[in-house]
Amino acid sequence: MPTGLKRDLGLLSTMAIAIGAMVGSGIFILPGVAYVTVDGPAVVLAFLIAGLLVLPAAFSASEMATAMPEDGGSYVFVERGMGPLLGTIAGVGNWFMLSFKGALALVGGVPYIVFIAPWLTEYILVIAVALAILFTVINIVSTKSAGTLQFVIVGVMLVALAWFIVGGLPDLSPERTAGAFNYGSGGLIAATALVFISYAGVIKIAAVAEEVKDPGKTIPRAMIGSLLLTTALYVAVVYVSIGVVDIDAAIAAGDLQPDGEGAIMALAADATLGTAGTVSVVLAALLALASTANAGLLSASRFPFAMARDGLAPGAFERVSERYNTPVLAVSVSGAIIVLLVVFVPIDQVAKFGSAFQIIVFILVNLALIGFREGAIDNYSPPFTAPLYPWMQLFGMASGFVVLTQLGTVPLAGAALITGVSIIYFYLYVRPRTDREGAARTEVRRNVGEAALERTRELFAEGRRYDTLVAITEQTPVETRLDMLRIGLDLSALREGSVTVTNFKQVPPRVFTASDTTSRHDEPPEWARKAHLSPNVEGDTTVANGGRQGEDTDETVTLAGNDAASTAEAVATSPEPPRSPPVDFRTVTTEDVGPAIVEFASFEDQSFIVLERRVEELHELYSEGVNEHVLRNAPCGVLLVEDRGFDGVEEIAVATERGVYDPEKLLVADAIAEETGATLTLLQTIPEDAPSGREQVVQEYHDELRRILTVTADSRILRSDDRVAALARFANAADLLVTSTERRGLSGALFGRPGDRLVDVVDVTAVMVQPAGKRQEGLVQRLVLDRLFG
Fold this sequence. Notes:
- The chain is α/β, with parallel strands linked by helices and 790 residues long.
- The model is unreliable at 532-578, 745-752 and 775-790 (pLDDT under 50).
- Keywords: Membrane, Transmembrane, Transmembrane helix.
- Residues 15-414 form the Amino acid permease/ SLC12A domain.
- Residues 513-585 are annotated as: Disordered.
């Protein structure tokens, strides 16, 4: 996308931005604090480990920056890979956290200024504000000027630090550096977490990627090179510092704070380099902190700029000045935030919050690369690719979580606050204005759909026998019994199974009995003898007393219907009439119907339980009805039937309230359709504002399902934020609705479940299917499927 931004930054200037963003308070303030944390010289190892842990994020950011050399850095990566929500979190968080770091850097030189000029102490705030304004003006006038200034600052700083290292080596005390690389030191992980923020600037190169010359080569060289150089510099400087300064003695003398904070580098220079060396090191410290502020402002301003281009921030932030070719508003607002933070906010506390969030950003960057590599991204062909994929990224994420736990409660709470504010902003401002989604989410949806398709193929190809228990009670109306039997026959007919119609009679609790449940075989009842299941097609269904398929039976009764014979054409063309499922009639006397149904189905090894849906149980808070008990404990699939009559079935609507279709629900619908000659219609909703990519993925999923089904099937994807109303509108045109059932729970008892609400508002018979072994989706699973498939 042409933006008017100039590609002015070469390799050295780009490296200077990263080094300037890293070499600041991390090296001039934190060594003493980390020394106290790790309780010894192993602070050197802590800096080395932290640099290694940042390496995966640097490689990941390098690859994505070469593929998408756009201003915005980690925001762009996360937004493109993981979607606008996480992109908003990364963008808003990075913007404010870089501003916080810039403000901290401007006042972080206080110990060094006081060290050489105590009389300037009262002017510190004025100097910090003046520098913030100066850097803002420089970044408005020219990115090239900002990069050149950064190069000069970093050059002077590196010369001074090199002098410090070379000059300090002869004065090292071996006793003080003993154990510098001792991995067994107590507090090593905590110290690593503390100094982790020292490397946060490494991926800031990506924030100005759109202004880098030859980004395919320059960005990875600058990013990896600056990280390796800075890590080596940190290790050498810290090693010399603790080798020439007795930190415990300095704390005791008041030269350092009890927590190790203070001008430790100035103390080390004073002990080894004399006045000239001390002045140069103090100058380097002040320049380093100034460069951190400058790089922070430069990088921070590019986040609202990039977010505005994607519709995640007001459009004014993406306007580039015709005179200066810079995003003036983005730079100005970022500079104003830094000034306000310098004047009003305790910056040291805010900096700790930034540490936690920067680790989260590194985790998201590694995750985003996985999203791009595995996702449905067109034209993703970066000139540079990260090595050791995906193990390096997985290691980076895992180590990031470990380090994050060592930062303490307050920084984590700050990161959580920034995240919460970003989420609120997303739903109030961003979501109504964007319909994109990340590559990872698109690919996860595809993967979930593929997994569901594979399970469906396996189930339809199994060819295993299905035996069905039709569980009725004295309260079940005759018409409902007939429809439940019909469904049972359809389920078992295709797989040479059997149907057991069992009347569960409830009796009051008895005392001194051998058993509270008894069972007996019955002759076919009168309602079954006189059944006319379908007046349109003639056929015979054999109903056996006490029989299973292949067993001798004592009595048969003929029922007219197409369920047994499938269709008249099948009878006419088959060399012999198709065999109908045998039906066994039972009566079970029990004190508790729900447990009796479950025990019977388990003992008889049934594949499905067909049960009447009891509306009166839907809002029971303190008791468990028959439906709930069976759904909770059934050893097999459960079909709840809401009977409104369905003679002459021509169309069956199969609806899913969320996520993918469960294979057993499709199997049930397909079996009924094949036995009745009906067609299926797959109904699924997605939100009104869902991106077009989601509809395409869902349509591809439906198309694959239609190839698996054995009957003719249509597909309807409905865009609606009221999915129950949308599904009901189309389901009412069908003769039968097949949908899912859900356990009620407290929320379901109070507010109802989508499946129950759908069945309640339609006028057709509904079959609610709970697959075998699936009691209830967990909260996380429900939320994920709902987000993925709408």
